[in-house]
Amino acid sequence: MINVHEAKTNLSQLLRRVAMGEEIVIARSGRPVARLTRYDSVDEPRVEGRDAGLFTVPDDFTDPLPVDTLEGFYA
Fold it and tell me: Per DSSP, which regions of the chain are E strands?
């Protein structure tokens, strides 16, 4: 367990330790507030067309927005 000041001062070193598998608890006033752990991503290959058919572009998609909608951007 390390305190917040030490974590801020030594963040790069802590990240190296975490990358090696260590788990670090960060405390404020001696009370644990956060856990720093390694992020293990699951990289799935992208599949072209996986979401095909889930959305249909409406015919009026490129039409100008209604005036009341446009006014909301400038309110």
Answer: 2-3, 24-28, 31-36
